[in-house]
Amino acid sequence: xxxxxxxxxxxxxxxxxxxxxxxxxxxxxxxxxxxxxxxxxxxxxxxxxxxxxxxxxxxxxxxxxxxxxxxxxxxxxxxxxxxxxxxxxxxxxxxxxxxxxxxxxxxxxxxxxxxxxxxxxxxxxxxxxxxxxxxxxxxxxxxxxxxxxxxxxxxxxxxxxxxxxxxxxxxxxxxxxxxxxxxxxxxxxxxxxxxxxxxxxxxxxxxxxxxxxxxxxxxxxxxxxxxxxxxxxxxxxxxxxxxxxxxxxxxxxxxxxxxxxxxxxxxxxxxxxxxxxxxxxxxxxxxxxxxxxxxxxxxxxxxxxxxxxxxxxxxxxxxxxxxxxxxxxxxxxxxxxxxxxxxxxxxxxxxxxxxxxxxxxxxxxxxxxxxxxxxxxxxxxxxxxxxxxxxxxxxxxxxxxxxxxxxxxxxxxxxxxxxxxxxxxxxxxxxxxxxxxxxxxxxxxxxxxxxxxxxxxxxxxxxxxxxxxxxxxxxxxxxxxxxxxxxxxxxxxxxxxxxxxxxxxxxxxxxxxxxxxxxxxxxxxxxxxxxxxxxxxxxxxxxxxxxxxxxxxxxxxxxxxxxxxxxxxxxxxxxxxxxxxxxxxxxxxxxxxxxxxxxxxxxxxxxxxxxxxxxxxxxxxxxxxxxxxxxxxxxxxxxxxxxxxxxxx
Length: 649
Description:
By secondary structure, the protein is of the alpha+beta class. Helix content is 29%, strand content 18%. It contains 23 helices and 30 strands. A hairpin with a 5-residue loop joins strand 7 and strand 8. Helix 15 (402-412) packs across helix 16. Mean pLDDT is 90; it is low at 1-23 and 31-46.
């Protein structure tokens, strides 16, 4: 007799029963009906979560290494296990899906003095910590003064260098006096994926050394409070606060709908797919192939976009290739341009992301306000821009049809999507650089490179040109996807390129011990509003250290120029709310980056999300993008009031 069953029958088997689960070290385990019904109190003591009241998602950053330590101000503490995304309320949060800044624990924008040496911050009234104590200006003042006092805090140097005094003018107004003008000081409190968060003064002031405090249980101003966690770091569970209406989330958006939210560790995307197929994981984030596999099998799952390219394409990060300009031959701008022009971007994106990435030829992503404010106005300049090749020959490298060519290639492979020009531009980008291996060859020959008898490139000293592309060990992540695609293109061009996978990339990158890497070709902008200060300041010469010492910038090209330093200084001295000036200076900075190409931008960061609609609906998909769609972002708490239990109209 055959024991085979259909997928539909299998689903009935694994989802039959009470619909309640408990958490074990390996994940969610269905509660046997005999255990649940006769003694619901005993089931609750075992850590049970009624499935229809529980939303289950994954921990993006993996198994928690210090499960009982929630002191996120010291070292790295897995903020996406629910700290930043459920339990905490920063002063402000960027929502890159809507292009807005959300006033959280602050009630409005900061007000600067004319010379940017003082600012006042208004706080939201009626907010309480999850233990019932009121949130006031005293908490903010205590936080800043404590961060300045103890060197063990992550933000100690920033506040010690910038703050002269911090004062509570009243219970809901804080004044900062700065040591020097800084028109972007407030952005340290602006949450994008990490910011300066506020201590509950009444708890931390009782600690002899707050840098050694585990802060367990976590107390925050967010709408959820800590319920329980796995001592091995596999999951963390949160429960909706009874006084949710005394949180910024509740005040702004209403009551969160899930009673419980569980963040679960999954070892690989196969485990995620299986868990969603059996309705034990409401949200997955996969590779292109993983998402296709899920959608091919699932009857209740959906992607961010209902049709190809399916992906989340409004993340404010640009992916691509970073050259170590402190290491020859990458210190030569001709070499960097040659490596860029050796790439066929249609083939590249096909290899990297199955043609689903949105191209950007500049060092910011094609999303939100950036196309209208920056990328579209730069099209004429990009088209007319030329590089010097050799002996007076110039070349215009920009191809304004690149996005259309990627779309045509995707359609030739059977993908179906709208041919509307606006859709094509939004999904595939406006343009990129030409595939011009003949020009790349001229640039290299001009600088003393040569080819051997087999056509392989040799360095000016006659030795084989080998490029080691450093990337991480998670092969579905975009650093690895860019690495594989670039190496394939360069090998086609005759360079002995290879991928170097390592878990030590952060250290090697920051000390300059690499050839080429990915993270990222330009630092992410905040994701709302026009300001590119966060992008451009990473190329500040003040942050560059000799190779072997840790650079102070977030990214690792070790490139700067006097022209970029001047642009950064002028932007720092410009009111961040003066859109016209901010955009004009920002365009200057993007042009300077393109001319020097210290890194090659390719496509915007995209997310391959799958939402299961068995228990929860009204996800913020592309047709209803009311919020950042990721559960690991701090904006997740603002999504929870808009989710709907399945079956509710």
